[in-house]
Fold this sequence. Notes:
Layout: E1 16-17, E2 26-27, H1 34-44, H2 49-56, H3 60-74, H4 79-96
Amino acid sequence: MSSAADLSPTLSLGTPTTDRRLGPRRYLPDCLTPFELQILELRRAGFNRIEIAQALCRSPQTVSNTLTRAKEKLGAGSLTHAAILAARRSNSDRRKSR
């Protein structure tokens, strides 16, 4: 069984991609808010929008809106793909700060 990391090629931030799932010449933005990253991390961990809303004391609609906005910023085709891209962005940022 392949891991989620094997499902998408490694992408560099701020560089054009030709990944067909993202479409040609899309850029991965470096502009996700900390709240968007937090929600995507929880989504990646398996929580649904209602569980995320309860954990963060927010409304489910706020969580849905934030997930949609983050997905659009990343040009992802699904929330799962957005969560994977956000995790890569976060890991890339950690490596750069070392």
